[in-house]
Design goal:
By secondary structure, the chain is of the alpha+beta class. It is built from 11 helices and 19 strands. α6 packs antiparallel against α7.
Length: 394
């Protein structure tokens, strides 16, 4: 067994390429690694991968969608109060909230984060006006606004997205400045936290983190108050693409999580399934295996098909571009949603449940590190439409 493997805790079953990725990350200056059960191959570091560094930060590990994360809000209304209005509610969601790439928010969101001194750094200073216009937009890919009911038929609003163009352009700038190589099968770009690049990157990362929190709060709170006419009872909010300064077994590390939810003892998290699948509210517990996991858990169900495998891609035949069919059929996806009484706005085959693992399976692999507090049944799903191409790489 190699030294990198001995430092890595692996949950669930994975292909060799994903395991090689986490091994490569640990070998490139990492002290310890974790691969969560929803893991799959990513750019330089696998999604579901966690690496702890001493005095270093991995730009590749945090990734292009800095501070992508989940927010779930428990409301004070029950399913029966809105069941007959769900179609109109979902129409209002896509009317009021901008989905897709490069979109401006339909409502200006003022926030104190725009007074943060980190905006004076490059490249953030050139991104401030665009970021202000995009705050409160959702994006494409697997980013969503969903409505759920829990075991008591209480309504939850859940959202999943990150720091939008601000995070993507910040990551791109620092990866280039650090001499990083773009691509899947490349070593991670790791810099010293005390270097100029390291210090500036951390300032930019934390700014993107504040921005992502503010965006998710703006969207989810508008759905709760402005569309449902409800009140907020509880909020469960986490990044899952980020780096935190943490102490483990008496030592301090930069713990870089890409597609992994922090799950310290007593800490709650919101973990979504695939489109139309149940989601959960979880809570971390303290145990020997939790400490091996660096108090990290899954962020979702985890892909088993790439986007192009699921929905196909365009190929050139002579002078024509023809769509090559993928492995998921539209009628299968729609039947799944109809059987579960889910109202869908937007979405495409690359986000179909057939392209993902089942969430209960990946949660089972993390038994002894988390407990499930609530299971959330989706009945309204809003995502970007099928013609939206997602440039964010994680």
């Amino acid at each position: 067994m190699s030294e990198s493997v001995s430092k890595t805790k692996i949950f669930g079953q994975h292909d060799d390429a994903t395991i090689r990725q986490i091994e490569t990350c640990v070998a490139a200056g990492g002290e310890r690694g974790v691969l969560c059960a929803d893991g799959h191959k990513g750019y330089a570091q696998p999604i579901g991968g966690v690496v702890a560094y001493k005095d270093k930060i991995s730009l590749s590990g945090v990734g292009f969608d800095i501070a992508c994360g989940n927010l779930a809000i428990l409301t004070d209304i029950k399913c029966e109060q809105i069941a007959d209005k769900i179609d109109k509610i979902m129409d209002d969601v896509v009317r009021d909230i901008s989905f897709g790439i490069g979109r401006k928010s339909k409502t200006k969101v003022d926030h104190e984060l725009f007074d943060d001194p980190a905006w004076s750094l490059q490249p953030m200073r050139g991104l401030k006006s665009t970021a202000a216009e995009q705050l409160g937009t959702v994006g494409g890919g697997n980013h969503y606004v969903d409505l759920f009911a829990d075991e008591q038929e209480r309504i939850w609003v859940g959202v999943h997205f990150g720091s939008r163009g601000l995070g993507h352009k910040t990551a791109t700038h620092f990866l280039k400045a650090a001499g990083g190589t773009d691509g899947m099968d490349v070593p991670p770009t790791v810099v010293d936290e005390r270097s100029t690049i390291g210090e500036d990157y951390l300032a930019g990362m934390h700014l993107a983190g504040r921005y992502a929190y503010a965006g998710r709060e703006a969207v989810a709170r508008h759905v709760v108050r402005g569309i449902l006419g409800a009140n907020i009872v509880e909020e469960v909010h986490n990044h899952h693409n980020f780096a935190w300064r943490e102490k483990h077994n008496g030592d301090e590390y930069w713990v870089v999580r890409k597609g992994a939810t922090p799950a310290f003892s007593g800490q709650k998290g919101f973990v979504g399934g695939s489109m139309g699948d149940d989601a959960v509210i979880i809570e971390g517990i303290d145990s020997p295996v939790s400490r091996e996991a660096l108090f990290s858990t899954v962020h979702g169900a985890g892909r088993i098909m790439s986007r192009t495998q699921a929905k196909g891609k365009f190929v050139r035949v002579g002078n024509k571009r023809i769509r090559k069919d993928g492995l998921v059929r539209h009628d299968e996806m729609m039947k799944w949603l109809q059987d579960r009484h889910v109202v869908l706005r937007g979405g495409d085959l690359d986000e179909a449940p057939q392209a993902y693992r089942r969430l209960p399976d990946v949660l089972r692999a993390h038994e002894g590190t988390i407990r499930v507090l609530h299971t959330l049944r989706p009945f309204g799903v809003a995502m970007a439409g099928r013609d939206i191409v997602d440039p964010y790489k994680d």
